[in-house]
Specification:
Structural class: alpha/beta
Largest sheet: 7 strands, parallel
Strand content: 15-25%
Strand order of the largest sheet: 3-2-1-4-5-6-7
CATH superfamily of the largest domain: 3-Deoxy-D-manno-octulosonic-acid transferase, N-terminal domain
CATH architecture of the largest domain: 3-Layer(aba) Sandwich
Length: 428
């Protein structure tokens, strides 16, 4: 089976190589971590037992925060090592963990690379965030009697039908997983339906609720307020936006500014993908608004913003929460277009009036909880976004009720970290 997997990977690599080369040349991606991707990895403390935590990208890495803190607290005799797949994921993992833990790029799943990796790392337990289950990796772990646990597990509405089409392949991998710790019962049932053993799926809830910090202040936000010169103005933040949304946001904001009572409202747009920063900057400029790139304020290239009519582009990594904390109202992106949504828990936990579009399938349970409690507002299109934004700005009491209910949903949903630790205790 591993030879077949290797052949499939090789054919995929050949087919994908032009795109990889294009991204290397134009987006400065895939330029580091090649030795690690090929299995050349060294642990910091090879004499210790080891827990390997793997997350794909930034969102999954952020979801590990409370879990890794609890692992470190309860199992100090273990070395914790952390991998990610994407450049931004590794960057975020290094930012969070590099001082305390080994952080590295996740190796390719070719069988000879997987063999080399396990020989060097010798993990005692592998924790894979959400659904990062690779065939050769899982087979090798099973052969070595190393437990593999899917943590914060989910299979999206979009992915499930695709996996069912190739169930004959998927089940050969899923049957080797020791535990599926799923966010919901529906996700747990999907793991079993795709070949997981019946006694391996446990509902633990979402770790992302635990990482959502219920707070009124975020460190560094006051400095941003000074840099963008927000003073007593109201700030509308569109965070984690995707292609096609920024124009809608800008058009809504333009219509809003036609009304005198909204003359003090500012707009900050924080795109999800850093490679789109320049594209969104051009879009803002071409729309007729003055543009302030926050990266230039942050680096000192530009002094504090003095023009209160500018649109702010949040073109830095790691500052979205700070912008949210300064906001009056938040729109959570990748939701007016069919991209699955972005994390709406952060803004809700801060007690912000949170709005998102109808395409939130990656956060379906969270959305259901928030809407049931009237702790967020879903809009279907540009017109509804404009009307909702106008209503929330005109009626602060209404907006505050939404914000308060949303925060309470987050508080009531926390606790997945302890359930996860309890579930893996017998494996350590």
């Amino acid at each position: 089976m591993k030879c077949l997997n290797d052949l499939i990977y090789l054919l995929a690599l050949i087919a994908y190589s032009p795109k990889i080369l294009y991204r290397v040349l134009t987006q400065n991606r895939y330029k580091e971590g090649w030795a690690e991707r090929l299995g050349e990895i060294r642990r910091n403390f090879p004499e210790k037992k080891c827990v390997w935590v793997h997350a794909v990208s930034v969102g999954e890495v952020n979801a590990t925060k409370t879990l890794i803190a609890e692992l470190k607290n309860q199992f100090p005799q273990y070395e914790i090592i952390i991998s990610a797949t994407t450049d931004t994921g590794v960057e975020q993992a290094r930012k969070l963990y590099a001082e305390d833990f080994k952080v590295f790029y996740f190796p390719f799943d070719f069988s000879f690379i997987v063999h080399r990796t396990f020989s060097k790392l010798k993990p005692d337990l592998c924790l894979l965030m959400e659904l990062e289950v690779w065939p050769n990796f899982t087979s090798k772990a099973a052969k070595l009697n190393i437990p593999v646990v899917v943590v914060n597990g989910r299979i999206s509405d979009r992915s499930f039908p695709r996996y069912k089409l190739i169930k004959c392949f998927v089940e050969k991998t899923f049957c080797k997983v020791s535990l599926f710790l799923a966010q919901t019962k529906e996700y747990a049932d999907r793991f079993i339906a795709l070949g997981g053993r019946k006694d391996t799926a446990i509902v633990t809830g979402s770790l992302k609720y635990d990482t959502a910090q219920v707070t009124d202040k975020v460190e560094g936000a006051e400095k941003i307020a000074q840099q963008i010169n927000i003073a007593n103005q109201r700030l509308f933040v569109a965070g984690g936006t995707g292609p096609g949304e920024e124009k809608i946001i800008i058009d809504v904001f333009k219509n809003l500014k036609h009304h005198a009572q909204f003359s003090d409202v500012r707009l900050a747009i924080v795109p999800r993908k850093p490679e789109r920063f320049n594209e969104v900057a051009d879009l803002i400029t071409n729309s007729g608004f003055d543009l302030t790139r926050f990266s230039r304020l942050k680096s000192g290239e530009q002094k504090e913003e003095t023009n209160s009519s500018t649109v702010i582009l949040g073109d830095t990594m790691g500052d979205l929460r700070k912008f949210y904390s300064l906001s009056t109202i938040v729109f959570v992106g990748r939701s007016l277009v069919p991209m699955g949504g972005s994390d709406m828990m952060e803004s809700a936990a801060m007690g912000k009036c949170t709005i998102f579009g109808p395409h939130t399938f990656n956060f379906r349970e969270t959305v259901k909880d928030l809407l049931r409690a009237k702790g967020a507002i879903e809009v279907k299109d540009e017109k509804q976004l404009y009307e909702t934004l106008k209503k929330c700005l005109d009626n602060p009491q209404f907006a505050n009720q939404i914000a308060s209910a949303g925060r309470q949903v987050i508080i009531n949903s926390q606790g997945a970290t302890q359930k996860t630790i309890a579930a893996i205790l017998d494996l350590l």
